[in-house]
Automatic annotation (TrEMBL):
This is SET domain-containing protein 4. The keyword Transferase applies. Its EC number is 2.1.1.364. It holds the Pfam family SET. GO terms for molecular function: histone H3K4 monomethyltransferase activity. It is found in: Cytoplasm, Cytosol; Nucleus. It comes from the Eukaryota. GO terms for biological process: inflammatory response; methylation. Forms a ternary complex with TBK1 and ZNF268; the interaction with TBK1 is ZNF268-dependent and leads to TBK1 monomethylation. The keyword Cell membrane does not apply. GO terms for cellular component: cytosol; nucleus. Residues 389-419 form a coiled coil. Belongs to the class V-like SAM-binding methyltransferase superfamily. SETD4 family. It comes from Eudyptula minor.
Length: 439
């Protein structure tokens, strides 16, 4: 008898350990208990998902039963979703409806989040607000020192993102002031820049796509946002497939999996076939061994390897510009992209070959010399980018030891750059093989 009880105890312990192998169950934490109760009051039926902390992805959801392709992961009732409809039915609604020119759906949602966060204990959305991140790692939130370490095309987009959020804040100041009757405190201190930055990041990183009909009280920007408490804890993986949509019959937002998932494993969804630069820009994270990842070649880097004395240089650049061949030139896991090789092929045309530029743009072989020069220059660009990436990685490791407060931000850029280095090393090998095959 004793023996068998010992075996059962061991079995139970093993099962218990199994549930913690991938992630540490966090569903017992008070903020998550309150969130689940709040969702239940709004009609959410508890599924097989448990909140857990994972060593590689951080906070996420694990499944307590094995999932098969075609299984429903989560079904969140309409009442749980935060949309512009929620905003209009709040005390902000009358102010939005009479404000001219109309505010955008995005600003309406930002305003609601800031107002509800300010309301604290009085907010009906407090259980959701309490589990939202306090800070974000989107480029708009990164320190200047960190932004300068991003690859050039991403650095440019990061600066554009920052400008856009600044302009959003400046252009909304008058509207925020009109809300003064609702607050005892000055609206200038409540709706300050950092509050808007936090709200904008919350919406940009966490909303699901849900189309709403156009309302006259909003500007003409598409009203396609919905914040989905609990559902937004599902992390991204490029290797899974899901089907996600609002179900008009059940009046719920549903996610169905097209992949299998073992019991006690983290459940992932896919935000789209995004490369790491796009993931960092839009969501503030990167994913390792991302099959969609690319290293971008800026037009400045591209043109550095072509002599200014080439009489047709300006004409070639104009052709590339007209045919949109100066953007999205990349190295990937399978080597240089067709677009990059085509742009370089056109730039490598000899004076006697220039009339063949249309054929070059179609990818035709122009001459052995042209093919060889294209490959040589591609390899030079690849090595230049490798050296540049290694140099930045060195800078990051030095900064990490000096600037404790930037550790998290630096680790993010480091992960991006390490993935870039792997891609460039793979591309260098592929180019070396191609070069040997053509000589």
């Amino acid at each position: 008898m004793k023996k068998s009880r010992g075996r059962t105890g061991r079995k139970r312990r093993r099962k218990h350990l199994q549930s913690f192998m991938d992630g540490v169950n966090s569903s017992h934490k008070m903020e998550y208990i309150k969130l689940k109760k709040w969702l239940k009051d709004r009609g959410f039926e508890d599924s097989n998902l448990r909140l857990a902390q994972f060593w590689d992805t951080g906070r996420g959801l694990m499944t307590t039963k094995a999932l098969q392709a075609g299984d429903l992961i989560i079904s969140l009732p309409e009442k749980c979703l935060l949309t512009t409809g929620t905003v209009l039915s709040s005390c902000l609604g009358e102010y939005i409806m009479k404000w001219k020119p109309p505010v955008s759906p995005l600003i309406a949602l930002c305003t609601f989040l800031i107002a509800e966060k300010h309301a604290g204990e009085k907010s009906l959305w407090k259980p959701y607000l309490d589990v939202l991140p306090k800070t974000y790692t989107c480029p708009v939130c990164l320190e200047h020192d960190v932004v300068s370490l991003l690859p050039q095309p991403l650095r440019k987009k990061a600066q554009e993102q920052r400008m856009m959020v600044h302009e959003l804040h400046m252009s909304s100041k008058a509207f925020f002031s009109s809300l003064q009757p609702l607050f005892a405190e000055n609206t200038g201190t409540i709706f300050n820049y950092s509050a808007l930055e936090w709200a904008w990041c919350t919406i940009n990183t966490r909303t699901i796509y849900m189309k709403h009909s156009q309302r006259e009280c909003f500007s003409l920007e598409p009203d396609v946002y919905a914040l989905a408490p609990y559902l937004d804890l599902l992390n991204h993986s490029p290797n899974v497939q899901v089907k996600a949509a609002f179900n008009e019959q059940t009046r719920s937002y549903e996610i169905w999996t097209n992949s299998q998932c073992k019991k006690y494993e983290e459940v992932f969804i896919c935000y789209g076939p995004h490369d790491n630069q796009r993931l960092l820009l839009e969501y503030g994270f990167v994913t390792m061994n991302n099959p969609h990842s690319s290293v971008y070649v800026s037009s400045d880097t591209l043109l550095k390897y072509f002599p200014p004395r080439d009489k047709q240089r300006n004409a070639k650049i104009a052709i590339l510009k007209d045919h949109d061949f100066l953007e999205n030139l990349t190295f990937g896991w399978d080597g240089p992209s067709w677009r990059l090789l085509t742009a370089l092929k056109l730039l490598s045309l000899g004076a006697d070959e220039f009339t063949c530029w249309r054929r070059a743009l179609l990818g035709d072989v122009i001459s052995v010399r042209n093919e060889q020069q294209t490959l040589n220059i591609t390899a030079k660009i690849c090595h230049f980018l490798m050296e540049e990436t290694q140099h930045v990685l060195l800078q990051i490791s030095q900064l990490k030891s000096n600037k404790e407060n930037l550790k998290e931000q630096l680790a993010l850029v480091e992960a991006l750059r390490l993935e870039d280095l792997k891609i460039l090393q793979k591309s260098a090998e592929i180019l070396c093989d191609l070069n040997m095959a053509t000589t």
